[in-house]
Amino acid sequence: MNVLLPLPFVLPLAGAALMLPAWRSQTWLRLLGVGVTAGVVAVSVALAVEVAREGVITTQTGGWPAPLGITLVADRLTVLMLVVSSVVLLAILLYAVGQGVVGHSEARPSVYYPAYLMLSAGVCLSFLAGDLFNLFVGFEVMLASSYVLITLAPTPARMHAGTMYVVVSLTSSILFLTTIGLTYTATGTVNLADLSTRTEDLPAGTRTALALMFLVVFGIKGAVAPLHLWLPDSYPAAITKITAIFAALLTKTAVYAMIRTQTLLFPQHDVGTPLLVLAALTMVVGLLGALTQQDIHRILSFVLVGHIGFMVFGLALFSVAGLTGAILYLVHHIIVQATLFLTSDLMQDETGETSLERIGGLAGASAFTAVLFFVPAMSLSGVPPLSGFVAKLALLQAGFGSGRTLGYAVTSVAVLASLLTLVAMSRIWTMAFWRPRSQAPAPELPPEEKAGEEPGLSRQQRYSHRLVRTVTAGMVACGLAVAVLAGPLTSWSVQAAGDLLDRTAYQHAVLGEEAP
Amino acid sequence: MLMLVLFHATVALVVPWALRHDRRVMTYVAALAPLATVLWAARQTGAVAEGRPIAERFDWAPDLGLVLQFRLDGPAWVLLLLVGGVGALVLAYSVWYFGQPPPLGIGVLVAFAGAMTGLVLADNLLVLYVFWELTTLCSYILIGGFSPEIKEHRRAANQALLMTTGFGLVMLAGFVVLGQAAGTYTISAILARPPQGVAVDVALVLILLGAFAKSAQVPLHSWLPAAMVAPTPVSAYLHAAAMVQAGVYLVARLTPAFAETGAWRPLVVVVGLVSLIVGGWQALWQDDLKRLLAYGTISQLGFLMVLCGAGTRTAALAGLALLLAHGLYKAPMFLVVGVLDHRFGTRRGSELYQTGRRIPFAALATALAVASMVGLPPFLGYVAKEAALEAFTHGGVDVAVLAGVVAGSVFTVAYGLRFLQAAFGGNTETPTVQGLKDDAVSVWQSAFRGADGARVRLPRVALWPIVLLAVAGFGAGLVPGLWQEMIAPYADRLPAVGKGYELSLWHGLGLPIALGALTWVLGAGLYFLSPRLRPVWAALSRLPTGRQGYHVVLKGLFKTARGLTRRTQVGSLPVYLAVIVLTVLLLPGTSLVMALNRGTVPSLETGRVQPWDHPVQLVIGVVVVSAAVMAAWVGRRLSAALLLGAVGYGVVGLFVVHGAPDLALTSLVVETLTLIILVFVLRRLPERFPPLRRTRAARVGSAVISVCLGAFVTTFLAVAVLSRQYAPVGPGYAREAAEEDAKNVVDALLVDLRALDTLGEISVLAAAAVGVAALVLTGMREERPRHRDVPEPAETPGGRWLTAPGHPPLGPPSVLLAVTARVLTPTILVFSVYLLFAGHNQPGGGFVGGLVAGTAFVLRYLAGGMRELSAALPVDASVLIGGGLAIALCTGAGGWLAGGNFLQSTVLEWTWPVFGHVKLPTGFFFDLGVYVLVLGLVLSLTRTLGSSLEKEPEKVSGGAS
Prior knowledge:
- By secondary structure, chain A is mainly α.
- Chain A has helices at 7-19, 26-54, 76-99, 109-128, 132-150, 156-187, 192-198, 204-222, 230-234, 240-265, 272-292, 296-317, 320-351, 362-365, 367-380, 387-400, 405-434, 448-451, 459-484, 486-502, 504-511; strands spanning 57-60, 71-74.
- Chain A has a domain at 271-445 and 460-484.
- Chain A has a two-stranded antiparallel sheet.
- In chain A, helix 13 runs antiparallel to helix 19.
- In chain B, the strands form two sheets. A two-stranded antiparallel sheet of chain B has the order 1-2. In chain B, strands 3-4 form a two-stranded antiparallel ribbon.
- In chain B, helix 2 runs antiparallel to helix 5 and helix 14 (264-283) packs antiparallel against helix 15 (289-310).
């Protein structure tokens, strides 16, 4: 495992390093980007196989034993996140490759590709980090590249959004750093496994306050209400394929970090009540927000916020069932949210519009796009038998099985939130697909079966048309696969959740068998 | 049974696509799927009648209770016949109705048939929910998808979707609670051992809500009349025969276990009776025949609810018989409306005149259907109604129920007559017996007395489904024994009164038959009286309706959402930051204060916390804080930048006092470079900050919460210090570094012990460089300028000291600067290399070395502008950045080659002729990578900022001076 474990972030970093000097060759950038990301997928799958066989695997970077050196750890949750994220990373990169030739891409490939790879590296490092400070570094790599990406092809709106994004992210980083400082002060270590053995002996008040600090830190990046306000004002401003990756992975990485730190460091779970309240607040605020918007990207961003509430809810229940639900929801949401953004980009390609006030008539113009939107939209709304239903069901079961009045109340809110999602999604569907395009001039909607045959399009353009659509369809298929494979996925998640709460496997893997 | 569902799915997906060129053949082939259901169900008749249910199971996600369990028993068998039979006939009818049936519509219809089959057979609550929602989804597409350009259609589709899914979710919640109480989601297991308790009572109410919405029970019914905008085959199949019956079916399934539990029976019976009467009353007044039928359906479903939820054996027999009968008579009535609509261009009763003469066979078939509906013998409707009346003849509360049922049946008879008259008869305001008789005679004559000039030929495919369904209702009434045999195993689980009722055409004279006759008489009377009751109806229609309720709720929802979002999503960064800080204060802050009060953290009063180690720290602290406060205060950008610099240098001082020369050195160089870069940037900005728009209160507020945050962090730090119980790992680093023979612990940490962090941080730097370049160079050529491209300026003072003098960025060229730059460059570079090598044992290292080297080139730039810079270091900055990162990564990978872990360091030793024995830790190469990357970063920043300055110097400096 010495070689395999660092590869998910070493490969993209190496790719970025090789891209920087050779930025003039588009072909090189594309080949390298796709090759490296595909490599990450392969490595992630290999890691998953390894974890399935051997349990928690670790490597001590630099050969220094924990807690001195930095440990990389992969358990069931880690590899699941790695596999899903790397697949989505690859898909969106392929989409970008396809769109690079046609479409509304005014971004510089020389910036996009290396920054994208660094973002991948940051995400993967955050998943693998077995060390609090290294987790921070992973976040920084991810955020620094996201600063670059969000302002790609700058317009005044984008710059404004970017400023907001950067300042809020820096604020969260400062708070994160402060929290790490406080943690080290109180415990004398930053190795997660080592910390997990020490937090138990902290005075209860210190422990709770620390747990809440972690909650706030990751709550900002994860867009947990009321710390979410920045997200709907910044994400939608970026280029869609970038928003897609942000929406799919950045917030989820924060949720992952939240799950990891809360379960590993604070098993006493002193923060259950505030977390439950925040989860409910997030669902309601996010999804009500989605109903007020006209721009599809903004709707999707609000929906994203609302659905973070579902994952936080699963964590807040702090039971195997709840964590299983949270993990399933993570997997489902990463894939489906990315798919929806890609589809909305296709919709924009076809109509040049993202506003519900002006868009319309897509169902007649492009049945293919209609399917690509309808399936993930219904999945997001939790309509069976799609992946969202499976994840939501797990959460409902956990909530109603929690035996706490507050748990029941938040579960009811979750049920309501599902309906609100459906309202938001059916609104997009009705306005964009069913309603005729009222605007004069006459709709200029190239139906895509014909788009390929138009004489104006070169072979390369046809090729990229096809690639972009194939990738989006592939993502939809991934979402369906999650539903079909719900059985194995659930049992994997149940075990992952069990490991999270049990902690001993993690501690032993990092610190050795003699650890308490 | 799974195969049956999958077969539907396959047909739904493949057939519309494969046979899209011949739409008629496509539709006929599609009809094979529901036909297969009928045939399969027919084959199982024997097994079901013997009470041997057929079961199947497949695991989907067993951890969640999602197991595809199917089970065929009596009620399922009855429903399957209906779903399959009506499905096949409706599909055949569609060929005529649509002419060219749309592939999507046909596909979804077949998918619906499949979902319905699954729903009927499901023996697992969750699986039932899955199919339940699938039918909703199909209904959504079928209502809205045929003419989505009409606003009313879209609204109707959305209303149906939101109503049924919304309450479907409520039902799902009920399923989960019920399943958890029972410990299983398997329906047959739950029925065998029904759980008890408050949770179960609540769950059942939730489940009933879902069933009521699906079966369009008052007051959740308003979506059904609205859904009548769908094409007639859809209305006939989904909104009469199959989908809307699902709610009743679910109630029928659960009644054997829960009829006596909690609010089950009162709720079901009351809601059912209200729907029966309200629906029947409303149906009487509809002009649109489809809406008339829709209200009739609501009414009949109410009747079914009462029967299926009552929880007695007789009621259950009646309920299931009526379920079948209802499908068989309601579907042809819808289909005939489709015929009228198609042939005569309207489906309004007031606009149709004497159509019975023109399509006599359809009219006769419809009369058969209506006869079954009003319960005339020997139709199946009669058998069912007879049993229904019998079920409530046992006194007690039943009397009220019986009264309700009779009243409802009176309405049924009345609107049945009205339907016939409006659809086929003359156009009279006041119905008369004579009129009805004339209409009937004219239909009869046209059918059997030879050709009438007015007759319209109907294709067989339009007529046959209607006739077949209506005749089936007749035929089914002739074999009550069959239904008795099939339903009895189910009904026998319910309490029976007396010897046990049997479905049959003749029970002798008794109360039921008398009441039946009474309903006919009263119904006919009501029909003839109805014109006089119209004012009553008009008065009653002013009462709030379910439809209005739906719109009020929706409007309220959107209004709340807008209000909330407008107040929170204000788009102001200071507000968002304030919310973040307030959350910090509210959550960890409050918790800390409470902990201090309760004493769950070490007390701060013990005097164990020293405010400072050395008085100098206090002085520097005051300087840093006041500089920071002033930086927020001043109006000039340059002053703010300088004050921030002061903060930075103050921190450098703190590092020095703490005995961290390495950090101090690095910090110092960083601060200096930052200041230089800030000055570059400030040249492009106005001198002063824009005037503050925020109110005084807002500013005071921000000040207060900032101070609170500071106080919180300080307190927390003190608490954290006092909470520590373990030795920190820090000293371990010093020990390891000493073993490695590295005297500089910081450098050992950076390049060896925690090299992975460094690797991450240099990636951050690389990203930053890329980002700045991308931002600044937007709209400019991507090529970075080379010194040859920049025109050489005229003679500049000090020019000969430089390699390629150009325009200096700040002010006029200066000889002194040029000389200094040229002379110092080599010195600084040598120093930077020294720092790189010294890092192992002395203050220094790759990071600070790279920064120092960068300073040398910044100096050259200050002296001679971009031209000079390019000449001094003719390498692309991105090569340095990428190269540096690559060197660091290769060093890391070297650890693998040496058989160790990633980033594992080894010491290379070799002997060179002149140098002698050389010992070099591989960490040095890592440091070298850092050095190169940092140099690249400085270069990249200088170049991008510099080139943007040179690009448009006039325009830029205009505002600044």
